[in-house]
Write the structure tokens for this entry.
Amino acid sequence: MEIHTEEHHPIDSFIHTELIHSMWCSGCGNGTVVYALINALKEAKYDFSKVSVISGIGCTGKVTDYIKLSSLNAKEMSVIKYAADFKFKHSDQNVIALVNNADFLLDGAKSFIEAGNDSANILVIHINNCIYLITDNAIVPITPFMRFSVNGDFELPFNLPHLAKTCHSDYVARWTPLRTGWLKYSMIEGLSKKGFSYIEIISPCVIYNVTDRRIEDPVRRMAFYDKNAIIKSWEKTENLDLRDGNRIIIGKFINK
Amino acid sequence: MIRTEIHIIKNRCKGCGICIEICQNKILEISEESNKYGYHPPTVKNQDECINCGLCEMFCPDFAIWVVSQESVQT
């Protein structure tokens, strides 16, 4: 039996190892997304000086602190706008925009629609945990149906892949963090497109509990998301909202 | 039989237990001792049953565990 410690992980040369122990909770999906992103860039043999990552606020915004790529931490409302402008200025760079719900829904949807209609050559990775973590009793436009806020309100969920389709995206996919291999290939395909590509990752927030803010068992959370996710590629984007109770349709939907 | 080495960086682990749950052959288990942040990292129970699927490496959010097959070590 050989157990070695204090050696180098295969992706250690691409992350700031002195900063990891990271600030994410135990079992958070963000680390898996970083692993998939770096492995996608490694597998498609991208030059790492030709890749730029732009992120926003919150836990997702910390991704750019940990990876050794040229990166920018934009304001909450303008991540996709910055990414589109950056791609316009530096056309040799492959630009990736990492957004979360606060970046996307508070004020950033306008720049998303603009960038999609202009067919900006960027890859938007949206880490969707179905809540705003910052505010206590807020339900967001994409919270699944019949999930009540503390005040007892509910509303119909909004359909983000369909929005991406109507914005003329070339590539639309949706995964959970437990489909890391498929997520990696989606990132490779989305980066290779000469147009606007959108990947949504439905990732659980392990800290959030309505009554008290304690960390729930991440294994149980991930198992719940895994059990209720159904792979249905090429499903019509009209059917993709989270309206159907415990049913998350994942897969690749548009590939032009 | 595939000979593998399982590498664990104990001080990076946050004890979420995903690697223990995801392992097909139930190789890993929670150790009694804790690391310097107070989490309990996994230990290897029966090394010989590892088939080098790489799921633990793929799902670890803190880049703390990875598997190397013995052939790639020698070459």
In short: Helices of chain B lie at 18-22, 55-59, 70-74. The beta strands of chain B are 4-8, 28-30, 42-44, 65-69.
